Amino acid sequence: MDRERAGYRVVQFFRHLFPRLDEMERRRALATLPSPCSDLFLRQRRSDQAHALNIWRQLRQGGTTEEVLLQAALLHDVGKAVANLPPWLRAIYTLIRAFWPQLLSRLAVNQPGGWRYALWVQANHPAIGADLAAAAGCSPEVTEIIRRHQDKVVGEDRLAPLLRRLQAVDEVN
Questions:
Q1: Which end of the chain, N or C, is less surrounded by CB atoms within 10 Å?
Q2: What is the tens place of the pLDDT at every residue in 62-82?
Q3: 166: closest CA among 147, 23, 155, 97?
Q4: DSSP of 112-152, one letter per residue?
Q5: How does 121-142 read in b/e, with b if 16+ C-beta sit within 10 Å?
């Protein structure tokens, strides 16, 4: 991890500690989601809601009008809500993933409860979130974007351009 990236992660950590939410913008964003999917959005930590709203806003400001992408932007990290990961554990996850990924695979376990499960949820939140979105009735396209939002986009399928846009904005938020 270079200095610039490390500095960005420090800023991101403090954003998670002290999230800012614009309630009017939040209501506007929630109106773009089908009802059960808006309940998913509200299950997220306040910091994750703020992160999702930042991405949603930047996509819209960049000219994005595709409802599928805007809905996926609001829900892409919803899988993290399963373990309600605190910011300090996310920071540890990020450092381990960057510097010692083999350790992460040994520490993270799929057994609910405790910090090891929280690490597993963090590592698997795209698939967890996609399953939650599908169960809530989100469209298959929204569900697939959530599932793939951290995967490297290879080839050109119908969702590839949307995934690239989401990833680009997510990377700087």
A1: N
A2: 999 999 999 999 999 999 998
A3: 147
A4: SSHHHHHHHHHHHHHHHHHHHHHHHT--HHHHHHHHHTTSP
A5: bbbebbebbbbbbbebebbebb
